[in-house]
Design brief:
This is DNA binding domain-containing protein, excisionase family. The protein is of the alpha+beta class. The chain has a domain of 67 residues. The chain contains 4 helices and 5 strands, in the order βββααββαα. A 3-stranded antiparallel sheet has the order 3-5-4.
Length: 97
């Protein structure tokens, strides 16, 4: 997120200051609209209403990502849980085969 996005025409357009919920989810790594709404409700993302449309600010997305990157112990825990779940699935597949 460097403030510009490539338009495909060789010119860089300024990156939007706000995102609709699905676009905010994509910026945050592919989160669903529901997950983004949950983060807004938990006050982890800042939302604004423009023309009756709820949008998430780019600044709050960047802040949220920075906060998540500053917590590597949680990433390690998630990685460990994922690895354990993968082993369990592989064991079930082996037994079923």
């Amino acid at each position: 997120m460097n403030g510009t996005q490539n338009t495909g025409t060789g010119t860089a357009a300024p990156e939007p200051l706000v995102y609709r919920l699905p676009a905010a989810g994509q910026v945050l790594g592919g989160l669903s609209r529901r997950s983004v709404s949950k983060l807004i409700a938990e006050k982890k993302l800042q939302a604004v209403v423009i023309g009756g449309i709820r949008m998430v600010t780019r600044a709050s997305c960047e802040k949220y990502l920075a906060e998540q990157m500053a917590r590597p112990e949680e990433l390690e825990q998630v990685t460990n849980r994922t690895a354990k779940a993968r082993k369990v699935r592989q064991a079930k597949t082996t037994v079923a085969a």
